[in-house]
């Protein structure tokens, strides 16, 4: 209970209210003391008027007047004459003098605290102004014991009232906190627990309903996070199912391609010159398809295999890509150009580099196939001291905004209708496997350019362990 938000709020409220009441208590007691002293001055003035009216009174009446006024003697100054009007024996010397005519709040509080904490019955002198201008001043001597008793009685009543007010205030605030804060927070906790039990269930996403602005903002942020997480989990589930299906298809397709590869080997024995000329390309394409199927099967168990790095001539790989993509029906009017320095070599996995460039060229071909104007796909290469750079540029219409937002995300970065975006995702993953990166350099009405950057430095095992 005490460790809960409402319990701690109850304790803090009670403490703060009591602190406020203490701050009120001190000046209240000082004010009560001032009123008490002024009332004694007023009583003494009334008693002195009885003597002034009768001029002479007996000792018993004088003692009764002083007893009713609760003072020992009364001094009244009228005009310039200071006159002892009523007097009696003073039990002890005068301890202190208090002039109420021009006393500030600090002096009143200090005098009240001194009288309140003093346990001795002392005699004090009190000076004030007579009521209704009945003289210049009136002065009395009195004991502090009755004053202290009256102050204690008043203080206890103030403290009791403060305690009641504190408890009622704390209770009301406690109920208000439970109603407007604790209950909505418990609702959020319940929603989080429910969502954690089945995050794929969109019905468990929180519906913001809090009336407190800050708490509602937290609910809105939580709903956004839950929505994104649910979408990510669904996509992950779809990818897992797709991976399982692709693995099964690849297994069967690999068997079919193996048989086709055996038949292609026999085609190479044909005497027809055209067949003999096309047979090596057919065999290479079938071999590459078999490798892709085997890689897909491996992908079902792990990620892309690490690249087998070797020095390769980039122009030869680019030419293979162009020959493969040039066979497509929509590539007849597309110019496939390469701008690669003679003898340009780079360290990469030949098959994976082919897949990267093939995906980029295929995407470019599909982008400009239905576009008007000049249709050109150009591959350029350059290098510096630390990297090799290969760019694939086209003259297509550019990528739409949605494709740019999720460019390398599977099933979200498709640039054309019906596209899955897998090509760019696979190319980016293969580039990362080389320690490099695939980036979008530019896109717009003038065309699109992707750049592949591969590092020249090879990190050895000894270097990585240092």
Short description:
It contains eleven helices and twelve strands. By secondary structure, it is α+β, with helices and mostly antiparallel strands.
Task: Summarize the SSE layout with pairings.
Elements: H1 5-54, H2 59-69, E1 73-78, E2 81-86, E3 94-99, H3 105-117, E4 123-128, E5 137-143, H4 145-197, H5 213-267, H6 273-299, E6 310-313, H7 314-325, E7 335-339, E8 345-348, H8 350-368, E9 376-383, E10 387-394, H9 401-405, H10 422-433, E11 437-444, E12 447-455, H11 461-465
Parallel strand pairs: 3-4, 7-9
Antiparallel strand pairs: 1-2, 1-5, 4-5, 6-8, 9-10, 10-12, 11-12
Helix pairs in contact: 1-2, 1-3, 1-4, 5-6, 7-8, 8-10
Question: Would you mind describing this structure in some detail?
Answer:
This protein is of the alpha+beta class and 466 residues long. It has three domains: 5-169, no CATH class; 199-302; 307-465, 2-Layer Sandwich (Heat Shock Protein 90), CATH 3.30.565.10. Helix content is 56%, strand content 17%. The chain contains eleven helices and twelve strands. It has helices at 5-54, 59-69, 105-117, 145-197, 213-267, 273-299, 314-325, 350-368, 401-405, 422-433, 461-465; strands spanning 73-78, 81-86, 94-99, 123-128, 137-143, 310-313, 335-339, 345-348, 376-383, 387-394, 437-444, 447-455. The strands form three sheets. The chain has a five-stranded mixed beta sheet with strand order 2-1-5-4-3. A five-stranded mixed beta sheet has the order 7-9-10-12-11. Helix 1 (5-54) packs antiparallel against helix 2 (59-69), helix 5 runs antiparallel to helix 6 (273-299) and helix 8 (350-368) packs antiparallel against helix 10. It is rod-shaped.
